[in-house]
Design brief:
The protein is α+β, with helices and mostly antiparallel strands. Helix content is about 20%, strand content about 45%. It has a 13-stranded antiparallel beta sheet, with helices on both faces. Strand 10 and strand 11 form a beta hairpin.
């Protein structure tokens, strides 16, 4: 009998990490990592890391870009199918109640639309001018507000770093993948700050949010936000004119 065969003629199973199930699990894990490396939002190749404390810290920080309750005034330029709209948004957010209230006015001061949202309780959109449709606002303005002000931690993220010193949280969810990009901050109370959010399909981002910060202000909150939605053919440039904690 050949020394490396069992009596039944089968090759012996060589244990690795304790069981074949673990081999399969690790293989899937690294296949996902390689797919991410090959197509991460057009960025340079990223290196997988096993720094779980940092991964958990950044994952929780997804919902900590702003205080739990804020009032803000936004000056917005909306580009939609080649046409520009100038709007001012008066916003109130309560994260503990999962609540958003927005009044959007035209540059002449008239109300364009109003949005009220409370997760699992109420969603209401009132339109005052014909330029906007309810279904479009649900998929654009309301989605944008929820992604910026009411995001939730990812369920099973991977953590990557790149040569530029940024960290990327990556969540694969079927055909839709999410990326949260963090960069170092001079704020002593916040080591990293959220710089970009990408929704990716077929290795290409189709929805992106980018945050810019004024390094001279502490604590740091984004004072400029840009949004691009290639699927719905619009982009937003948002200047944060006023932001304070809500009483």
């Amino acid at each position: 009998m050949a020394p490396n065969r069992l009596r039944n003629g089968r090759n012996p199973v060589i244990p690795f990490f304790g069981s074949n199930k673990k081999i399969i699990a690790w293989s899937i894990y690294y296949m996902v990592a390689l797919l991410f490396i090959s197509g991460c939002a057009g960025q340079k190749k990223n290196i997988i890391t096993n720094r779980d404390p940092l991964k958990n810290q950044l994952n929780q920080a997804i919902g900590q870009v702003y205080p739990d309750s804020v009032k803000a005034i936004h000056h917005v330029i909306l580009s939609l199918f080649g046409k520009n709209y100038v709007l001012n948004g008066y916003l109130a957010v309560d994260r503990k109640k999962n609540e958003i209230s927005l009044i959007a006015q035209t540059e002449l001061g008239g109300t364009a639309f109003e949005i009220y949202f409370e997760k699992d309780v109420k969603e209401e959109i009132n339109i005052k001018i014909d330029s906007f449709k309810k279904e479009w606002l649900e998929k654009s303005a309301l989605k944008d507000l929820r992604n910026i002000y009411l995001p939730e931690p990812l369920l099973t993220p991977l953590l990557f770093s790149d040569p530029n010193g940024t960290w990327v949280l990556y969540q694969e969810d079927g055909k839709l993948n999410q990326e949260y990009v963090y960069k170092k901050t001079p704020d002593p109370e916040r080591e990293y700050q959220l710089a970009e959010i990408h929704h990716v399909k077929n290795h290409k981002p189709f929805y992106s949010i980018r945050f810019s910060y004024n390094d001279k202000k502490l604590p740091q909150y984004p004072d400029f936000i840009s949004i691009e939605n290639k699927k719905m053919h619009y982009s937003l440039k948002i200047s944060v004119k006023y932001l304070t904690k809500k009483d």
